[in-house]
Amino acid sequence: MTSLMGHGFVCPRGRQCFRFDVPVAGATVTQADDINAHGEIVGVYFDGNGLIHAFLVFGGNFTSFDFPGATDTLAWGVNSAGQIVGRYDLADGSVHGFVAQAARKGKPQ
Fold this sequence. Notes:
Elements (H helix, E strand, L loop, with lengths): L7 E3 L7 E3 L8 E7 L5 E6 L5 E7 L2 E5 L6 E7 L4 E7 L5 E7 L8
């Protein structure tokens, strides 16, 4: 049996691409989905149980975040104002979109 391991890549404009993996023990997949002009990076990762979590990286600080009560949370984009867009899934099978404001320090609100 082989295990799934996926790495994220970030390619800032005018700079060399680099590999990015979330600093979470047991994470198997990292997917960096967007980077804005300020260098804020958002994406998703799979934990060791296969659950999907959103993340924000800014200024060397990594923040994992989940919508309260969600089974999965995915961050797909971040604009220059720091607004993060994505989706979350609930246990009843319903899927919802969200917009969160990235605090320049701390977790998205």
